[in-house]
Write a structure and sequence with these properties.
By secondary structure, the chain is mainly alpha-helical. It contains 39 helices and no strands. α16 runs parallel beside α18 and α37 packs antiparallel against α38. It is globular, with a radius of gyration of 35 Å. It comes from Comamonas guangdongensis. InterPro entries: TPR-like_helical_dom_sf. This is Tetratricopeptide repeat protein.
């Protein structure tokens, strides 16, 4: 070893980074012939040629961990013992957690050398975590400690560590409402430890203790449905027999505590999740038939699913049960609609069965062909083994046996549509998508309409039967594409003009309304297709359809949809929509109420498109009409708060709208609070004039009308505002500009006439 160039600081980090690169083969296209073992050996040789003198605990920890990566725990621990005392000496000013980090490193490397010695170090390390200062988050250290305790199979010590961690958490006031949930999860973690230690009786007892803890939690505890589901997911592998009591306790607790009660949509969404748990419990008990029956009630795409994992599970159950007809049908469904997770499992199964299952060879061939043809499927299979033959090899097999197969027409039609050969694609898509609504997903149904619009005269395209879709989500997706001329133009190949909005609008409305009907049928019955249980898609559909109804002035129907969306998967656009429904109905009381709710929703949950300048002036007008003028001051403060929280670029972009809204609100406020308004008018007057636009300057002139001594200035402002009218100002703005000037001149004339008549009280004096 070279003793003359001991590395520390940046030089040490740079050396470790360079050595680490030896372990990796960066060329994924042409992997190197050098094995992993040879790479590790080269890195070890390089490390052994160098000496080290880490100056800090973090440098020592990094060096220790790299030796562990090189599978040299002995060298790692020896270096740790050699330098530990020096880097922790007081004059080195080590961080508060430095000793603890090295203590955990000591356990980690000793585990590969002397498990008994490593186990002896667990308790002192746990005690050190418990003594960490409050400004250091202990959770990461506890997680590492628990992993080491489990590696050492120190089950009793691991359980003791859980209690020590919880004691530390209880001192954190921010976790007060989570106490019951955290206590319940500790019970489950102890159950896992008991299972590892083959203590079966203790497993069941701890799972039941977890259930009881949530069931009996105090009213101030946060014990919602999601936490029950988290408990169930962790308890199921430990004690599937406990699921009925857990679900009963969940129902009892939520019946007592959920106010308001969940909507019908949320209840059905929850039933799907519960059905999945029940099916998995049956499968764990070896009851495959029961699992499959319950699984049919749970095989719906849910909002927070990462792809379609449950169909993949069900596909495995079908294979285990020998129900290959159903397995093949499910596999084909998964790939046709490119469902993440399940489609990859479907392709794997098709590769396995294609040669050995001639009875279902056509279905397996279609699955394998789809894997090649569908762009989404190719993406989903990036990390998977692709079918060995090209798509046409499998399609030729199907053509030879089932030339009229609708999926064959579908795949050929979509291939031609992607090539923008719409004349050839259209008859195949009509034969498949047009006649089989079970194929008409949110990619294929718009493709059929794009082919119609591209290949046919508009009148003929619209005269053809409107194809249906077996899925609320699919109807929503079709409506979205048909509503967007740019998206539709791409599908049409950008070769023909997209039909006008007026031609497409009835189709959009029809698909949205059909989607709504399908979703709500599922909420009422539990019967539907794969994506009919997705709360968030339903909520987005409600919002889109409500927007259409608002433009049609069907405000009550629109508001009802927004409320449904808020009750299923709430987002700010619904609250925004309710405000515009109230504005459309000119309901001042409701305008103020909905604006209040929108402001607080955006404040508490965020709303990227929240624009107070678009509605604050309307709120001020409603307050003025309701004789609640004093409340305008609250909204002025909110306007300033919103603008003050923008960054400099956003403030620059929104400055004009801020000033326009401010002038409008001050105009209404000046009617009863002129002494509060004038200073703000003066503060912004010059900047408003520099905008050189009519609206903001006109509103400033209107506000000045509240001051009899300033009426000449008000008239001048109105005239200046009128001089800035331009082609972008509509007829309403031009009319209000004329009326504002006439009104200000009339007030000025009346004031002057009153002043010229001795003994006549000026019009603005009420005393």
């Amino acid at each position: 070893m070279n003793q003359t160039a001991a590395l520390q600081g940046d030089a040490l980090y740079a050396f470790l980074d360079q050595t680490h690169e030896l372990l990796h083969d960066d060329d994924d296209e042409q992997p190197s012939a050098i094995s992993r073992e040879d790479r590790v050996a080269a890195a070890v040789e390089l490390m052994e040629q160098q000496s080290f003198a880490p100056a800090t605990a973090y440098e020592l920890e990094r060096l220790h961990d790299f030796w562990l990566l090189l599978e040299n725990p002995g060298t790692a621990n020896a270096l740790l013992q050699q330098h530990r005392a020096r880097v922790l000496r007081p004059e080195a000013n080590p961080p508060a957690d430095a000793a603890l980090r090295l203590a955990l490193s000591d356990i980690q490397s000793r585990t590969g050398l002397d498990r008994a010695a490593a186990t002896e170090l667990l308790l002192p390390a746990a005690q050190a975590i418990s003594r960490l200062p409050q400004d250091i988050d202990p959770d990461g250290y506890w997680n590492s400690w628990q992993w080491m305790a489990r590696e050492l199979q120190a089950w009793d010590l691991a359980a003791r560590g859980l209690d020590m961690h919880r004691a530390q958490q209880r001192s954190n006031p921010d976790l007060a409402e989570d106490d019951a949930y955290l206590d319940a999860m500790v019970c489950l973690k102890k159950a896992e430890l008991a299972q590892n230690g083959d203590d079966t009786a203790h497993v069941s007892a701890m799972v039941q203790a977890a259930v009881n803890t949530l069931r009996d939690a105090a009213p101030d505890q946060d014990v919602d449905f999601e936490r029950w589901m988290a408990l169930a997911a962790r308890a199921l592998p430990l004690a599937p027999q406990s699921l009925p009591s857990l679900l009963m306790a969940c129902e009892q607790r939520l019946t007592r505590t959920e106010v308001p009660a969940p909507s019908q949509a949320v209840k059905m969404h929850r039933k799907v999740r519960i059905a999945r748990l029940q099916a998995q419990a049956c499968a764990q008990a070896g009851q495959l038939e029961a699992a499959l029956q319950l699984g049919n009630q749970g095989r719906f795409g849910l909002t927070h699913d990462q792809g379609d994992p449950f169909s993949a599970v069900q596909l495995d159950w079908l294979v285990q049960a020998g129900r290959f007809d159903e397995a093949a049908a499910l596999a084909l469904e998964s790939v046709l609609h490119a469902r993440p997770v399940s489609s990859a499992c479907a392709c794997k199964l098709a590769r396995q069965r294609f040669e050995s299952d001639p009875e279902r060879a056509v279905t397996w061939a279609l699955v394998l062909a789809c894997a090649h043809l569908d762009e989404d499927m190719r993406y989903l299979l990036t990390e998977e083994e692709m079918p060995p033959q090209p798509a046409d090899h499998y399609l030729d097999l199907v053509r030879a046996v089932r030339p009229d197969h609708p999926v064959l027409a579908l795949l050929e039609g979509m291939r031609l549509a992607h090539r923008h050969q719409m004349d050839k694609a259209l008859p195949l898509l009509e034969q498949s998508v047009g006649r089989h609504p079970e194929f008409a997903d949110s990619a294929k149904l718009p493709a059929l309409w794009a082919a119609r619009f591209a290949a046919l005269p508009l009148e003929e395209a619209l005269a053809r039967p409107i194809p249906g879709a077996h899925g609320g989500h699919w109807c929503y997706g079709a409506g979205v594409v048909l509503d967007d001329a740019d998206d539709l133009a791409i599908l049409m190949g950008n070769k023909k003009k997209v039909p006008a909005d007026a031609a497409r609008e009835p189709l959009v409305l029809r698909y949205y309304e059909e989607g709504l009907r399908r979703f709500e049928h599922f909420w009422a019955t539990g019967q539907g297709t794969f994506k009919d249980a997705d709360l968030h898609v339903y909520s987005m559909l409600c919002n889109n359809l409500a927007i259409k109804y608002r433009f049609m002035e069907r405000y009550d129907e629109a508001a009802k949809l927004h409320h449904k969306g808020l009750a299923s998967s709430p987002f700010a656009e619904h609250q925004d929509g309710l405000l515009w429904c109230a504005i459309g109905k000119d309901d001042d009381t409701q305008i103020v109420a909905e604006a209040e709710r929108l402001w607080h929703f955006a404040l508490n949950h965020g709303y990227g498109r929240h624009d107070p300048t678009s509605y604050f002036s309307t709120v001020a007008m409603s307050l003025y009409k309701l004789n609640r003028d004093t409340e305008i001051s609250i909204w002025l403060e909110r306007l300033d708060q919103w603008f003050g929280e923008l960054n400099k670029d956003e403030q620059r972009d929104n400055r004009r709208d801020y000033l326009a809204a401010l002038m409008s609100m001050l105009d209404f406020f000046s009617a009863t609070q002129p002494e509060l308004v004038l200073p703000r008018l003066r503060a912004h007057q010059q900047e408003v004039r520099e905008l050189k636009e009519c609206y903001a300057l006109r509103r400033l002139g209107c506000a000045l009308e509240a001051y009899p001594e300033l009426l000449e200035e008000s008239v001048a402002m109105h005239k200046e505002a009128a001089s800035h009218l331009c082609k972008h100002d509509n007829e309403d703005e031009r009319r209000m500009s004329r009326e504002g000037l006439d009104r200000a001149q009339s007030k000025l004339a009346e004031r002057d006439a009153g002043a010229a008549t001795p003994g006549r009280k000026p019009w603005w004096k009420f005393w």
